[in-house]
Specification:
This protein folds into two domains: 118 residues, 2-Layer Sandwich (PX Domain); 214 residues, Arfaptin homology (AH) domain/BAR domain (Substrate Binding Domain Of Dnak, Chain:A, Domain 2, Up-down Bundle), CATH 1.20.1270. It has seven helices and three strands. It has a three-stranded antiparallel beta sheet with strand order 1-2-3. The protein starts with a strand and ends in a 5-residue tail after the last helix. It comes from Basidiobolus meristosporus CBS 931.73. One of its GO terms (molecular function) is phosphatidylinositol binding. One of its GO terms (biological process) is autophagy of mitochondrion.
Amino acid sequence: MQISITQPHKEYEGTTAQHISYLITTQTELKTFPKSECQVRRRFQEFVWLYNTLVDEYPASMVPPLPGKHRMEYFKGDRFGEEFVEKRKDSLERFLQRVARHPTLQKSVCLRNFLTAEKLSTTAPKGEGALENLGEVLINAFTKVQKHDERFLEIKESVEKFSENLHTIERLHQKIFKKQMELEPDYAALETEIKALSQLETRIAEPLLKFASAIEKQAEVTKEMIGSEEAGFLSQIHEYISYCTNVKGVMKLREQKQIDFEELSVLLDQQKSEREKLVNHGRTSGISSFLKGKYDEIKGVDQEKSRQQKLEKVEAKVKELEREVDSSGDLASRFSEEVLKEFAIFQTSKTIDLKDSFHNYCNSQMDYYKSGISIWEEIIPILEGIQPQ
């Protein structure tokens, strides 16, 4: 499946309903789609609906993040400005491409409707492949998983280190950006001084003005390079920081399933222990049992009948908990297997995106230095043409 986003358009301009819509073109060979190429217009809020629906229907899936789900302070201007809209368009396209290459999410009904329906329904369809949650919210007896699986501890550590590394890259790249952006007024000041010099050195005024023009061009290509890397490289770093947050969320949900299972198992053991006490009640002796029996006789309580009633209740509870433990254990096991598959998908997606991101970064740097070489190569013959008096 190939997805592209083009032609951002301002709808209902000048009204309170003003928003940007994006043209989404999808090319696919999936038989579930009505045709091989589809085009629809969607606004950002509909992307939010798609994201939320995918998260809700596929709780074990590591759903790619939306722009707007990560920090956006690097965007300049208002949300209807050209620069902001272009950056958001690129980020939304990357979001859809990540969803489209996900083997489970690409087959979802909500994605198909999002990419093909003329009018999008906001009613979230029921995902066929989604794992169902437990019917009741359990009050956990543990704050942490008691029986750890080394596979998931390794995944957790791997994601944490990757996230920390991305934060470091982001911080260092922001420092580089800041230094590069600080050059702009310096270039402008240098250009002004060279022009002033040309007024004093009238004999070589023309070469000096062309030199000043070269400085202006160098400042412009530097600005373009900063904008390109800001929209591409830095945006993708931000997106993967958010992606890591989503992965951690799924890992936390897996732990919750395991905790639910462990709590139910503890409750089952407690009820079995209670049942054992009731069964062995008649066989026990001692002063406390004797006194309890005498007290019940005085009150007119049929001790055996009371014991049988309690035993029946406990037996019913044991059977109920056994079913719950089996169900919860099965759910936790299936959820864990899904998470392992999902992490492998995340790793593949990460490799593809990092390769693309660093490749584009290299191209941006090469274009920048090639442009600089071209600018200064043009000025050298002009400077060499200056002859002393």
